[in-house]
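User: Hi! I'm working on a homework problem where we have to compare a predicted structure to a textbook description. Could you give me the structure for the chain below?
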Amino acid sequence: MQNENNASPFQKELKSLRVMHLGLMAGLAIVLLNMLFLNNFQLKPALDTLVLVALFLAVAAPLAVQAFILPQLLAAAKSKTGLQQKWNAYRTYAIMSYAILEGPALVNVVVYFLTQSYYCLIAALLLLVLLVRLAPNREKVISDLELSPAEAAEF
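Assistant: Happy to help. Predicted structure tokens:
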């Protein structure tokens, strides 16, 4: 592992993206645990309208955005000419990916708090797992951006 002083600017920016990703995951996990404690870990199989809307949001929003918006952002990032421009576009893509999962997860946590429906709790946990799987790392960035060997070495 390189010394912090010898790290490239991209490594420092990747580290800041990792910290932001970790903060989003930790914040979601803390809110989820707080809601569990406040509800005394009570779980009900409630399926009222509010729960159905939250579940629909948990499924439809990430799928729609993953299908229509994020591929365009990633394609735009790949088409940039310089490595810095590619990184800036990729960072936008990554942040939007995290937000698209965190928003519906938080909605489901709040609906769980209001209804104690374990369906919303499960949806929030699944979205949290998906968010964990999106953790940024050097290899993922190189693969997603399809960097040339020279760009990968610089990154």
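For your comparison, note the following. Residues 83-115 form the longest helix (33 residues). The chain is about 80% helix and 0% strand. Good luck with the assignment!
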